[in-house]
Records
---
Amino acid sequence: MKAAEFNARHPIGTLVFAYPGCRPEDGADTRLVTRTRTAAQLSASGDPVVWVEGEGAYICLTHVDPVAEDVWEAARKAEAAQTPEPTSLPKTAREKVAGLLWWSVPSGTDEEAKARTNQLLDELTAEVRAAAFEEAAAFFDGLADAEKDQHGYRARVMRGAANDVRRLNAKAAS
């Protein structure tokens, strides 16, 4: 279905079943009982797509099925009845970021994208950690430089602290 045709038949807010990965006949295990949150439009690749509530990426119109209100409501109730109570701890900030970003990482499969996302987050964490250690070492060097007696006890302690921080950085990097 073309975007203009979809928009003519289905306004923003239309109740839909959306399949972010693949359709049920292709083995999908994820179905969103949701509604459209934008008008349909063409993606950069030329596919007609729409954004739906509860999904951060657009979904191709071939993976969106408008449904009647009674069907949608029944599916929503069935989904709520099957949703187990959360038993795990809240996600860490890293897990939240990874969950938001993995779909945007180019790869052949979802698993590859998730692995690459974690690799990129590891690299970012290492860079941030190294910068923080270097900033702390520079802080202690600055305190030592500010001492009148460069060979006095306080200056030596501050330089020692700077060196300790650099050793911790080297240890964290390995």
---
Amino acid sequence: MRAQSRVSQRVLAGRMRIDPSYVSRILSGERDASWQHVLTICDICNGDPTRYLHTYLRALRYAAGSPSTETILASTQNTIAAADLRQALEGPGTPTWLVVRTITNALWGLPDLTLPLWRSATACMETSLPAEAFG
């Protein structure tokens, strides 16, 4: 997301009020990103709530050692489909809370931290109008 927005690590660090080397370590995965860091990076890089959710879930996957799709699905006892996992990590759209909670648990995350982000993403989707609404 940072690379796509063309925001430099130095600018990001300045806006976050942290050292640029710390930003570098967060982005490389050497340091864990706090929930606030994820939100701040998304805000600075012009992310939207749905994108926040995807980014956060991908960060959980990375922090869990980048398990394969098969490993994640097995850890959910195959209660979700591969398509659900793909949607949660990459989009498009936002999967149901049950799917997001299941993936969060499988990746050793905390659903209580993920729920507000999921709510924001679904609220964003509910307020957008389909193209057909404009004739």
